Amino acid sequence: MWESHPEFAHTLKEAWVVAGTAASATDLLAKLKEVSSHLSVWDRNSFGSVQRELQRLNKELEKRRDDEQRLGPSYEELKLVERISELNHREEVMWKQCSRILWLAEGDKNTKLFHLRASTRKRRNKIKRLKRPDGQFTENEGELKTVVSDFYGLLYTSEAIENMESVLSTVPRKVTDSMNRDLLKDYGRGEIKQALFQMFPTKAPGPDGFPAHFFQRHWELCGEEVTNIVIKLLSGREDVSAINETLIIPIPKVASPEEIS
Predict the structure, then answer these.
(1) How far is it, in rounded angstroms, from Cα 127 to Cα 132?
(2) Distance between CA atoms of residues 238 and 21, nearest Å
(3) Angle (nearest 5°) at CA 141 between 136 and 146
């Protein structure tokens, strides 16, 4: 929605430059946070509340059209209609992003559909209670987070493995020396860009709040810094723990789930 605003590109570039050059993954996370904060302020000043602004403009338009001395659409009316149309589009885009409907294009006043889909999806995916390890149910939000976090922490914890060499010795060798040399080559800058651009643009972002679309759309602005940092991470010159975080969003596969498994 922001990208439809004529001032967005300039505002983003200004925020990106002011935040300084990121030389590490930690620097990049701090920079993205600063840019996000700058854009949030700009959003409040430039967009405000779309729904409140629509209500105000519609009331103003209705008032002008109810004027007994009105002879026809005035210049002010036409500008109001134009502004309302623009805000309707912005609202539609906003709800589309929330609804995750990928098969329906923007347009044709689909705002109600997007709103309904987003609201329905939120209700359906809401987990109200879960069973704790002691067999008791909890509806406390803090305990629900602990149950989910502990489950995945245990799931992805490596277990002690013995006699691995004897197991590997029975596996036929499929990677030739030539193939291995190719696999050990340094990562190219083009490979990093290619991998990023193969990501779906608007899938759920990580803790920094920036989806792949942001980097794809503004690669000329951020690509150099991002590539340099990714190369450091892949070559072991940068600690990956700085960005090794994610958001766990359990999506129920059954109605009213009570256990996580």
Answers:
(1) 14
(2) 16
(3) 70
Identify which of 186, 188, 214 has the alpha carbon closest to the alpha carbon of residue 199. Answer: 214
Judge residue 254's burial from the number of C-beta atoms within 10 Å of its C-beta, 0-12 exposed, 13-18 middle, 19 or more buried. Answer: exposed
DSSP 19-88: T----SHHHHHHHHHHHHHHHHHHHHHHT--HHHHHHHHHHHHHHHHT-TT--S--HHHHHHHHHHHHHH
pTM of the complete model: 0.62
Secondary structure (3-state) at 245: coil
Q: How confident is the model at residue 59 (pLDDT cuts 50, 70, 90)?
A: confident
Structure tokens at 148: 């989910």
For the chain, give every domain's residue range: 1-46+141-167+184-261, 49-125
